[in-house]
Design goal:
Largest sheet: 3 strands, antiparallel
Distance between the termini: 69 Å
Number of helices: 3
Strand content: 15-25%
Number of strands: 5
Order of helices and strands: HEEEHHEE
Structural class: alpha+beta
Length: about 130
């Protein structure tokens, strides 16, 4: 008999080594993606703060600033317009969508009952730079 490991044991060890390497690489990529996403968000916020127009061309890169989406803050709306006093404004048991409430509430839904999402920024190559 020899002290050489059996083929199945060697294969198991190779698979374990490969899985460990893949797991470490996956963890590295996840950390890198998180860092990239944080940097992208920081750059987007800075561009949104700098840029006053909706779209602008910066050295061949078109940057667009999109307003954050306006949605209903249901908790604030429910406090301002309880179900008992504004039954038409509710689906059971939630308020209707903001677009419908704008028509139902005289003067529209007050700003304190809505929330606006964060603006976002996109960048793309200007057509002239594609050639």
């Amino acid at each position: 008999m020899t002290d050489t490991p059996t083929t199945s044991t060697a294969e198991e060890a190779a698979k374990t080594d490969e899985a460990g390497g893949l797991a470490r690489r996956l963890l590295f990529l996840q950390e890198q993606a998180k860092a990239i996403d944080e940097e992208r968000q920081t750059i987007g916020r800075r561009l949104a703060a700098i840029q006053t127009t909706k779209a602008h061309d910066y050295q061949g890169v078109t940057v667009e600033v999109h307003a954050g989406r306006r949605t209903l803050d249901a908790k604030r709306f429910e406090q301002a317009y309880p179900l008992s006093t504004a039954t038409a404004a509710y689906y059971v048991p939630k308020p209707q969508p903001l677009s419908k409430l704008q028509k139902l509430i005289p003067g529209g839904v007050p700003d304190e009952c809505t929330k606006t999402g964060q603006p976002w920024v996109t960048a793309s190559l200007t057509e002239a730079d594609h050639e």
